Amino acid sequence: MSVLVGLIGKPNVGKTTFFVAATMKEAEIADYPFTTIKPNIGIAYLKVECVCREFGVRDSPRNSFCIEGRRMIPVKLVDIAGLVEGASEGRGKGNKFLDDVRQADALIHVVDASGSTDSEGRHTEPGSWDPLKDVEMVEREFDLWLASIVMKDWEKIARVSELDGKLAENLAQKLTGLSIGKGQVEQAVEKLGLGKRYTWWSRDDILMLARELRIISKPSLVVANKCDISTAENNITRLKEKGYKVVPCSAEAELLLRKAANAGLIEYEPGSNHFKIKDESKLSRTQLEALKMVEERVLKKYGSTGVQDAINASYFDLLGSVVVFPVEDEKKLTDSKGNVLPDAYVMKRGSTALDLANAVHTELAKNFLYAVDVRRGMRLGADYILKNRDVLKIVSA
User: Fold this and answer.
1) What distances in angstroms separate CA 282 from CA 30, 157, 277, one per listed residue?
2) Which of 83, 107, 119, 247 is the most exposed place for a label (fewest CB within 10 A)?
3) What number of other Cβ atoms are within 10 A of residue 305's Cβ?
4) What's the alpha-carbon Rg for the chain, to the nearest Å?
5) Where does the pLDDT of residue 350 fall: very low under 50, low under 70, confident under 90, or very high at 90 and above?
6) Closest Cα partner for 206 from 244, 155, 138?
7) pTM of the model
């Protein structure tokens, strides 16, 4: 039931800077295209309100940590090689990119909102490139790649499906490696309304199907990076007007703040709209000016650097994930070792109590009897749909 979010975009827009800022994992950051060739996989954190204050307890987390009532829960983030025009035909690192992105449940599309990198990811004057073109290019290449996979066996799939009436099932088998299920295919086909004479569908129809499958199976948001550059503001507005879900962002600012916090120079919590300098005498003039610039151009203007906001939005807004707190003792809210509210699990939308049991331990699921809603003291069946902030006890034989 683990969820994976992928970072995508053309080369040299700050994807890897975003990745390092979010995970604090070492990765090569360089000022040239295709720095990222193999995907970097790291651990970022979701930031949610913990239930500890609601229950009036001091928690002792094991698989996460709590900062003043805010639970930081580890999640997987993958930084994928940059994509350029023609990737669906193998140009650049196209085939590698498209292969790596298959398993992602949602996508964070990083763009250079300042318009200072051209179509190939080379530096140019701020404002001279339109980031809207980058979003459209990545979507188009993804759709062409997905359509090419469908087209390979389409004649056979179409003929069989006209006979057995199981297009969604037959096509889902073809696309299983892309984490696209039968329900998602059914949803896409129903929306298009192209009829059941599948052998009559044209290449353009298949391309429309690929587009719908991408939208449904790989929901995405746009991270408008380099928002601290003056030319970014207008482009952020234009991206929003086009209907994209946009998070203004300065990955460099987040990385600077996290490094300063790790060095003990400032107090800073990821996602916050402020920081506190501990001792100005320990900072150089250059460092103080950099922090002031971050405060003025990013935090005061946009409310945060955007990195934490983008991670939270990808899991909660795009995927509808829920956070559940399993306990063994419903009275003390502890596990068998006495840890209070020890774990927080990020579960996919529609997950059940049985899915939670399986996430905790396969044996717990195998011998599942029922779950207990700690707040209400009610017994819940295996098919109970998990809600955000549920606190549950799993009872097994």
Assistant:
1) 29, 68, 10
2) 119
3) 32
4) 23
5) very high
6) 155
7) 0.88
